[in-house]
Amino acid sequence: MAGTPVRVALLGCGTVGTEVVRLLTGQAADLAARVGAPVELVGVAVRRADRHRDVPAGLLTTDALGLVSRDDVDVVVEVVGGIEPTRQWLLAALRAGKSVVTANKALLAEAQGELFAAADASGADLYFEAAVAGAIPLLRPLRESLAGDRITRVMGIVNGTTNFILSAMEETGAGYQEALSEAARLGYAEADPTADVDGYDAAAKAAILASLAFHTRVTMGDVHREGISAVTPADVLAARALDRTIKLLAICERVVGEDGTESVSARVHPAMIPRSHPLAGVGGAFNAVFVEAEAAGQLMFYGQGAGGAPTASAVLGDLVAVARNRVAGGRGPRESAYADLAARPIAQASTRYHISLDVADRAGVLAAVAAVFAQHDVSIAAVRQEGRTQDASLVVVTHRAPDAALRSTVDKIAGLPFVNAVVSVMRVEGEDQ
Ligand code: NDP
Ligand code: HSE
After folding, report:
1. CA 14, CA 47: separation in Å to the nearest integer?
2. Which ligand neighbours the alpha carbon of 202 most closely?
3. What digits encode the pLDDT tens for the residues 98-156?
4. Dist. CA 17 → ligand 1 center (Å)
5. Tally of CA atoms within 13 A in the half-sphere of 58 that contains its CB
6. Domain ranges of the chain
7. Ligand nearest to the backbone CA of 180
């Protein structure tokens, strides 16, 4: 193949990196034909070189900064993860004019502005399709295909590990820990799986999605985050009784206030959704994301959201794009943050709620609970009570209410003398009203 080779340094050779090496070397001739020049792997940085017998020893190094600084590196592919020292490596690469492909959502959600500024200064590319929703082409549609439209909402399942756990709890009755161990074994979970179960991973992805969708720099600190560790088998059963299922959702919205001012609302939390909702059927480590845009209407993106090979597919797609840009002498899209919308606090987010209470089974309890909802202007949509011996389970489903009003309602109810416990409070999404 004619053309000056595009020389690639790979940082990390774990679940994703191993598959990147396999695709890069196994499809070398096809990739060269697609790019217009050979794409050569010239170095692989890892932490423990003795664990990587499949990689030619001459390529391995434990000095990632040294590798990205080499003169014979044109493109850096980062699949290590974490914020430091990866931030320093990628800044060094970009400042030296080397394009970067990364799957690192944690870093992007923290330092996208700094990384894009370094890319702009040197004219390098920064691509990160694999950072959100694994194999699913989602960021390129937001960055490019929908660049002429006005996106109003992005909502979906963006974490494979938690979706795998919730699906297992519901379908097989598996315990939480058992399902998490299996997700880690299958290569879905982060190195520290609390990033998955506590919602950090999904929140980082929400920040990236909101940034691209609303042309605004949204960081982790702007995203409200709740994980799934508080979701119990009882919640799963309660959802089933109401013909609903529980999913960890990322929801990014453009909100227009009463005075016409726009803001961005980004949140990640578990929610009950109706079984009839398209997201309810998304099981295992699959992801699915709805995008709503004014002209395009509703779009749905679905596919494998985690795992080595699916993620490597997205990495390779980006690698081909930056290699083509190099060969053609052009650049990919830059950061688009001109709209600079304010972040809307979670207190103002409005959803429906499912509240489960353990109360004393005696006259006047239901009326007193209902009165607290009324005092806070939270309208009740449905009530279900099941008596036991002296106690009762009381479930209240509300109409849409602001988060702040709901929190105050629940705090007040928790203090009532006949309320033994607030068993769970969960948002209900995917329904009107
Ligand atoms: P792994 O933990 O499997 O692999 C991490 C790799 O980084 C290992 O090869 C490790 O080396 C190497 N590494 C760690 N520290 C250093 C260091 N200081 N210097 C050089 N190399 C180092 O992670 P994954 O492959 O699962 O994930 C990688 C990235 O991809 C993360 O950002 C993750 O969020 C993202 N991602 C992962 C997905 C998945 O499904 N797994 C999906 C989408 C994105 P060694 O092997 O020697 O320990
Ligand atoms: N840990 C992540 C997940 C990997 O489970 O979705 C994919 O980003």
Report:
1. 10
2. 2
3. 999 999 999 999 999 999 999 999 999 999 999 999 999 999 999 999 999 999 999 99
4. 7
5. 2
6. 6-134+308-328, 139-305, 349-428
7. 2
